[in-house]
Amino acid sequence: MATDAATAARPEPAATPPRTAEAIRIDRLVRRYGERDALSEVSVSLRRGQTLAVLGRNGAGKTTLLRVLATLLLPHEGSVQVLGFELPRQAHEVRAHVGMLGHDTLLYRDLTARENLIFYARLYDLRDPETRIGELLDATGMSRRATEPISNLSRGMAQRIAVCRAVLHRPELLLLDEPYAHLDPEAGELVEALIGRTSGATRVLVSHDVERSLEEADRVLALRDGRVVVDAPSREVTPAALRAVYGGRH
Amino acid sequence: MKAALAIARKDLLVELRTKESVPAMALFAVTTFVIFHFGLDRDRLEGELAAGVLWVTLLFAAILGINRLFVAEREQAGFDGILMAPIDRTSLLVAKAGALFVYLVALELVALPVFALFFIDSGFWAALPRLALVTLLADLGLAVVGAMLASIAVHTRARDLLLPILLLPLTVPAVIAAAAATKPLLSIPLDTGGVAKWLAVLALYDAVFGLLAYALFDFLMED
Asked: Do B59 and B176 meet the contact criterion of CB atoms below 8 Å apart?
């Protein structure tokens, strides 16, 4: 069921992305909060269909990078291309093709799971939203709880609905910030076809789990204080090298 | 427009379910009328005093709703879900202004009869059609300005303080026009002279602030 949902035919998007080989191309990106550089001269690129793992300590700039890619933050310097579109100039075009799953579920707790998904389906102007929502609720094992308000669901269940929300419009690029944080192993397996390697989407995966990141990613980007300290194919990076990114500062 | 409808429909559904804004606004208005009733020690009001009591009460009650206009986005879903969608960001303005307009109309459905009960001796029902037109035009302006300013205030820590400080000066022209249009309608005998002029002022206010909000909203929503 989960695989069916993940591989169902894609709807025609509003603006088809240019067929560039690279899904993400970032060149000397700088993003500041006030005087502080949250991202400093960050450069990285990722081919379509690949997974980029982003690691680093708290405050290293991981979430800021995701938010720039999600068009929620403006880059202050440097250039950012997502799916062949230039940011921030073509942010509107990018949004139709990007799904984000972050720390917040982005669900309204007074609405039911289904009402939340219908709301987002309307924002993305989805064709036949009922069928798509049904597929996703089945895939995540949430069909029977779909008519309950989000406030009645456990955090893990809400996270499963958040996965449905993030992939509702079949995004080509998934921005995932600790996506498995609230999921038990069984739920993690359920959402694998939607947000895991088998989803077929290009993924940017923020995580503190070094082993899992190396296992899932094609490329690894490690940040420290907003600067790139590791940028390499995952097969060339050892867990020890990544753990070093987390150690020794304090 | 589809996106604006989707957001407005979501807001109204959340309000229907939680009943957090409109009942509080209505209760505030009724309580304020009671305070005016005893504070002024008057059973009957007319003319400019009646218009002033009505519009000050409606404006302050509206602030309660405006303050809560983006609460669901701030406390529950955040803005991110909407801002990441491939929609024109002015859809959010249209939706929030639309939802606020509905809240204000609902408020007045309660507040106007209570106001009449407390303060108006006779002639209120004869004046009601014109009064309804005044309130609808004033509501439109309040809804647009309120939605625009609420979108600014919601990103600040002192939002509960900031919103009235920003809102009240900007709504002065609307309140002056609304009160001036209401004054002859609540006079004894009913006098409709001059109402059209103030309705035109209200319509102009709505048009100017509508265009201003439309022009500024994208910029306000930028990071």
From this structure: no
